[in-house]
Write a structure and sequence with these properties.
Blueprint: E1 3-7, E2 10-13, E3 18-25, E4 32-39, E5 46-51, E6 58-60, E7 68-73, E8 78-83, E9 92-100, E10 113-114, E11 118-123
Parallel strand pairs: 2-11
Antiparallel strand pairs: 1-3, 3-8, 4-5, 4-9, 5-6, 7-8, 9-10, 9-11
Length: about 120
């Protein structure tokens, strides 16, 4: 059974950093594109970052470019999101998602598996 478990969220101040982790199990991790999405309070879930299953380009939302860094470790079945210079606008529940043989889509409907999310709250 496929499972994604996010961790690393918390309450921080503006300008601080956090590193989110997502542990994957129950599927062939190396053949899945992995992505991070987030859902701010009262808003729709939105794309943050992703990369295709064969590596290559990493895609970022304009709002996080230059501040967030996506990475994955196929040997550990892990994906990470390093978030620097956080602002209150980054407050959201952050989700990781997996897309079989995906190319790193920004579209939620492309993803097959989702984690339960981890809360990130940034105070001003």
């Amino acid at each position: 059974q496929a499972q994604l478990v996010e961790s690393g969220g918390g309450l921080v101040q503006a300008g601080d950093s956090l590193r989110l982790s997502c542990a994957a199990s129950g599927f062939t991790f190396s053949t899945y594109a992995m992505a991070w999405f987030r859902q701010p309070p009262g808003k729709e879930r939105e794309f943050v970052a992703a990369a295709g299953w064969i590596g290559g380009n990493t895609y970022y939302a304009d709002s996080v470019k230059g501040r967030f860094t996506y990475s994955r470790d196929n040997a550990k079945n892990m994906v990470y999101l390093q978030m620097n210079n956080l602002s209150p606008e980054d407050t959201a529940v952050y989700y990781c998602a997996a897309d079989d043989y995906g190319l790193g889509s920004t579209l939620r409907e492309k993803y097959d598996y989702w984690g339960q999310g981890t809360q990130v709250t940034v105070s001003s």
